[in-house]
Amino acid sequence: GEEVTVYQLEESSPMNLDKSMSSWSQYGTTAMIQVLSREEMDGGLRRAMKVICTWSESDALKLGQVFIVKSFLPEVVQTWQKMFHHGTVLHLCLRVKCLLPCQLLTDSVYIYRFLEVFLIYCHSANQWLTIEKYMTGEFRKYNNNNGDEITPISLLEELMLAFSHWTYVYTRGELLVLDLQGVGENLTDPSVIKPEDKKSGKMVFGPANLGEDAIRNFIAKHRCNSCCRKLKLPGMQSKD
């Protein structure tokens, strides 16, 4: 197996998340993982491996549990080296984890969550990676990071699309969460979309952030559904 050091986000105020600040644990814990198979991933930014935890000194990775380890493709790292001259892969991994787990509550039967993602350092490869629990079941993609969405045929699908709408309204048009995908109510790999200041050259939320183009596309294509109406969300319109 491979020895890795595992880091996780910690909350400054676990009992009051509204006022809590998240930060990475200063010290990692050691674990051993063994590769089971290579996995296909959509999007063209990262590649994935299915692994099993064979030993762990903490509960971050549980013994015998199957996980997905994700790494950025070399061409993605090479492109982003222009912005992050040092520690490019680490910067990209941190941007993947910038989304805190969150949930949208309605009177429906569904409560959905983003999987917890850990940051790991693989000693033999001298590489930073992300790791998350492996999901079994039918994997669905509800919308993509360009703002295209499926035509919903169930309450769960309507709720997923309403969540993207809600993020745009809740942040007053400053942010939009897209790329909602996963198994049932368990989601993974969302993208935070934010219009960027082109002059600054900053990409706060990483390479999956397609910026203003994605927001305009979502506004044009999103069709409000029963969940949007239950949440009393206004119709989509451009932010002046």
Summarize the topology.
Blueprint: E1 2-7, E2 9-11, E3 22-24, E4 29-39, E5 46-56, E6 66-72, H1 74-80, H2 88-96, E7 113-114, E8 117-122, E9 127-133, E10 139-141, H3 155-170, E11 176-178, E12 181-183, E13 186-187, E14 191-193, H4 211-221, H5 226-230
Parallel strand pairs: 7-13
Antiparallel strand pairs: 1-4, 1-8, 2-3, 4-5, 5-6, 6-9, 8-9, 10-12, 11-14, 12-13
Gyration radius over CA = 18 Å
CATH C-level label of the largest domain? Alpha Beta
Segments where pLDDT lies below 50 for 5+ residues?
88-103
Spatial separation of the terminal alpha carbons:
54 Å
The helix-and-strand class reads: alpha+beta
Tally of structural domains: 2
Total strands: 14
**Average pLDDT number:** 80
The string of secondary-structure elements, in order, is EEEEEEHHEEEEHEEEEHH
CATH level-two architecture of the largest domain: 2-Layer Sandwich
Tell me the major beta sheet: 6 strands, antiparallel, barrel
Q: If you consult CATH, what is the topology of the largest domain? A: Phosphorylase Kinase, domain 1
Describe the global form.
globular
| CATH level 4 superfamily of the largest domain | Phosphorylase Kinase, domain 1
Order of strands across the biggest sheet?
Answer: 1-4-5-6-9-8
- Per DSSP, the total helix count is 5
Keywords: ATP-binding, Kinase, Nucleotide-binding, Serine/threonine-protein kinase, Transferase
Protein name: TRPM6 protein
GO molecular function: ATP binding; protein serine/threonine kinase activity
Domain Alpha-type protein kinase: 16-236
